[in-house]
Amino acid sequence: MSNLFRCSSCGSPDVRLNKQNQYQCSYCGSLYVNKERALVYAAKEIGNNKIKILQVSAVILFIMLLSIAVYYVSGENSAGINQTVNDNSVSVNQDKEDSDKTAVDDSVVRQDVLTDNTPGAAKKAEAEVGPLAAVRDSIGGIYFSGFYQNIGEAVITYPKVTVVLFDKYGKELKRAAGYGTRSFLLPGEKTIVRVLVSGAPEYEKIKILYEPQPASKFTKLSRIKLSIVESKMNFSGRGRLDITGTVKNIDSKDCRMVKIEALVFKDGKVIGSGLIHIADDISPSETASFSMYIPSKIDEADSFVLDWQGTPAM
Question: Which of 54, 70, 204, 245 is deepest in the core (most CB within 10 A)?
Answer without folding.
Answer: 245
